[in-house]
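Could someone model iron/sulfur cluster with this protein?
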Amino acid sequence: MTTVKCHVNTCTHWLKGMCGAGNIDILSESTSFQPVEGKETQCKTFHKREGIGDYLSSLDNVNWTGTAASLLGGEMSPSITCTVDTCHYWGQGDRCQAEAIEISGSNADESRETNCQTYSREGAQ
Ligand code: SF4
Ligand code: SF4
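Reply:
Sure, complex below.
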């Protein structure tokens, strides 16, 4: 399973550098072209934490087992659905085959301000 490290401290799913979502969707920022660099990707599952209502509305996508493990000092990571097929790590079925990914975007207000930093252009390695 791919480990997810996240810097998006404004997201309802963020928990001390980890992601508490059950699944995250990584997409292109653009609807008309696929990324050629990491800053053109986004974590579409980002949900801005603004109040208790935002937290409650995100509860349908929570990794409860991972959250419990993390509270005991363990690790947790969501499953990943990624449609960025220009990435070296992209696999059939929209699966990410990287061992670990890192999502950037501290203080983001919207998902477009988040990026998969681990993106590597297919063929560039
Ligand atoms: S931005 Fe994405 S990876 Fe980060 S905590 Fe939110 S849902 Fe998880
Ligand atoms: S590393 Fe590549 S395949 Fe994996 S989530 Fe990021 S963009 Fe998608």
